[in-house]
């Protein structure tokens, strides 16, 4: 069993833990009414990582800690800014399976073992507001670190942390920092105790995800594309724990990340060797499909639920909501199992390893060294050409099943064109951003049309089940008609939206 909480904190260099005369009085700073001494605690933590420090390299930590009020296993995952999420499990002798799974996208299945032991004598103070509640905790730690890899190397230092209470305005950190800076107290040079311990006990320095290989020419097309690929790979790794814990929108975001990666690897084949990237794209397609069952069910549930809720009560005949709920529960459960099976499969681990290799040793082609403007504009125009051809074909077809399929293919081409603009926004600027916005508008109309196609298919199946059970079919027919009308509106709107993305204006803008 695990529980989690968000922690927002900053670390500072501290001259001494024994004599704290250097610490300024924070009473009166931004609503701090008093500073209350909470005594001293002895903390003992053993940090686990892989041989090549994969957790530390992605700003995550896993530790087993005794002492203090929160003894147990702690997995810390990075969030934005000064925040991290801490997932806790009860104290045990071995790593809890739940935390091991949540760390899997980072460890990629490699063994975890103790790397550093960090003991701290912590002096704790509460920063209390006028209402008597704690706004933050200020701790001064006398830290002793020791390598557990056989060298026995030790290090010691003193540091201070200011951690906000859960409902405190983050601006308090800025105000407190100004007061500390006025007394000569600056930010810690290391982002965490572990990072400093790894360095000072000679355990090693993890690979920094943003580090660029020497083969990448600064300011080149290769640098632009690889920066984007790095960001998307990091996003996929970070989203894995959220998907496993079924957090809101996590499946959608992970699936979209897969699509973005696939599209960019395809669009920029002139930069990255397709002999390496094509197999990666195939595996990303597989993962996206596995995630798609759960995401598609989410979209369909929300769409049908909104349609039914909007109907006047006198038009809802029979057990409409109950039948949709039964249908949804069965499909959602099956889709959820499919998602988790994919994330726990050897195939997924192999994909994660391929992505790590892709970012660490990118298969650069000759054009990767060129200036990005022409290389990236050409790639975008090529994707736009595919979109233009698919749109022309779809719009020539009469309404019906074939046109629905053709519009769905055009939608996928619109996404690829839009995603191709994203790495180029740094070099191409507003033209790339503007095109991305216009193509997104096309994609949204096509997306709503496709959602209507899927909804009509689902409604037909549910209606058949209702009819078989002897239930009225009126409401199902009404809902089907509403979806058909929505699709018709999308098809009427599409030529206008598509006309905004003029090829003539596009080519002029990108080639300027």
Number of helices: 16
> Which percent range describes the beta-strand content?
15-25%
| Residue share in helix | 40-55%
Largest sheet at a glance?
Answer: 8 strands, antiparallel, barrel
Spatial ordering of strands, largest sheet: 1-5-4-3-2-6-7-8
Number of E-state strands? 8
Poorly predicted regions are none
Question: SS-based structural class?
Answer: alpha+beta
What spatial form do the alpha-carbon principal axes imply?
Answer: globular
Distance between the termini: 58 Å
Our Rg estimate from Cα atoms comes to 28 Å
Mean pLDDT: 93
Q: Helix and strand succession?
A: EEHEEEHHEEEHHHHHHHHHHHHH
Structure write-up:
The chain has helices spanning 54-57, 97-102, 104-107, 171-182, 193-200, 221-244, 250-267, 274-310, 320-343, 346-360, 372-396, 401-421, 425-428, 430-468, 474-499, 503-511; strands at residues 3-13, 32-49, 61-66, 72-78, 83-89, 113-129, 134-147, 154-164. The protein has 512 residues and is of the alpha+beta class. The chain has an eight-stranded antiparallel beta barrel with strand order 1-5-4-3-2-6-7-8. The longest helix has 39 residues, at 430-468. The chain starts with a strand and ends with a helix. The mean pLDDT is 93.
List the helices and strands and how they pair.
Blueprint: E1 3-13, E2 32-49, H1 54-57, E3 61-66, E4 72-78, E5 83-89, H2 97-102, H3 104-107, E6 113-129, E7 134-147, E8 154-164, H4 171-182, H5 193-200, H6 221-244, H7 250-267, H8 274-310, H9 320-343, H10 346-360, H11 372-396, H12 401-421, H13 425-428, H14 430-468, H15 474-499, H16 503-511
Helix pairs in contact: 6-7, 6-10, 7-8, 7-12, 8-9, 8-10, 8-14, 11-12, 11-16, 12-14, 14-15
């Amino acid at each position: 069993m695990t529980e989690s909480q968000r922690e927002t904190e900053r670390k500072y260099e501290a001259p001494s833990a024994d004599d704290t005369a250097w610490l300024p009085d924070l009473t009166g700073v931004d609503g701090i009414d008093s500073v209350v001494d909470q005594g001293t605690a002895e903390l003992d933590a053993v940090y686990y990582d892989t041989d090549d420090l994969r957790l530390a390299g992605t700003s995550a930590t896993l530790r087993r800690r005794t002492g203090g009020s929160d003894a147990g296993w702690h997995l810390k995952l990075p969030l934005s800014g000064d925040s991290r999420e801490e997932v806790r499990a009860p104290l045990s002798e071995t790593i809890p399976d739940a935390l091991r799974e949540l760390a899997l996208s980072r460890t990629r299945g490699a063994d975890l073992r103790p790397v550093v032991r960090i003991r701290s004598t912590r002096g704790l103070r509460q920063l209390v507001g006028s209402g008597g509640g704690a706004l933050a905790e200020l701790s001064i730690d006398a830290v002793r670190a020791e390598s557990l890899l056989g060298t026995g190397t030790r290090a010691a230092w003193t540091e201070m942390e200011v951690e906000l209470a859960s409902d405190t305005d983050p601006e308090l950190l800025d105000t407190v920092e100004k007061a500390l800076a006025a007394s000569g107290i600056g930010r810690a040079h290391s982002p965490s105790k572990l990072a400093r311990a790894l360095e000072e006990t000679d355990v090693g320095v993890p690979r920094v995800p943003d580090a660029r290989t020497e083969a990448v020419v600064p300011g080149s097309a290769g640098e632009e594309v690889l920066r984007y690929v790095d960001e998307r790979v990091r996003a996929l790794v970070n989203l894995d724990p959220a998907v496993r814990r079924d957090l809101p929108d996590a499946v959608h975001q992970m699936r979209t990340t897969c699509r973005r990666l696939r599209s960019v690897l395809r669009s920029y084949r002139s930069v990255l060797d397709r002999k390496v990237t094509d197999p990666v794209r195939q595996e990303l397609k597989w993962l996206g499909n596995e995630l798609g069952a759960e995401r598609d069910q989410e979209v369909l549930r929300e769409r049908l639920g909104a349609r039914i809720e909007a109907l006047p009560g006198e038009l809802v005949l029979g057990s409409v909501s109950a039948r949709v709920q039964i249908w949804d529960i069965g499909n959602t459960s099956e889709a959820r199992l499919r998602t988790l099976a994919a994330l726990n499969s050897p195939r997924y681990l192999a994909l994660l390893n391929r992505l790590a290799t892709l970012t660490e040793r990118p298969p650069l082609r000759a054009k990767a060294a060129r200036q990005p403007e022409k290389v990236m504009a050409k790639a975008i125009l090529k994707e736009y050409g595919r979109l233009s051809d698919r749109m022309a074909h779809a719009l020539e077809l009469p309404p019906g099943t074939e046109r629905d399929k053709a519009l769905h293919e055009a939608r996928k081409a619109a996404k690829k064109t839009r995603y191709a603009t994203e790495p180029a926004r740094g070099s191409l600027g507003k033209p790339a951003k503007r095109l991305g916005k216009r193509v997104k508008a096309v994609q949204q109309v096509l997306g709503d049309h496709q959602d209507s196609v899927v909804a009509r298919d689902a409604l037909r199946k549910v209606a058949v089940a209702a009819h078989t059970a002897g239930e009225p079919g009126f409401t199902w027919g009404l809902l089907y008609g509403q979806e058909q009308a929505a699709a018709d509106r999308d098809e009427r709107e599409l030529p206008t939206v598509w006309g905004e993305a003029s090829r003539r204006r596009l080519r002029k803008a990108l080639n300027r």
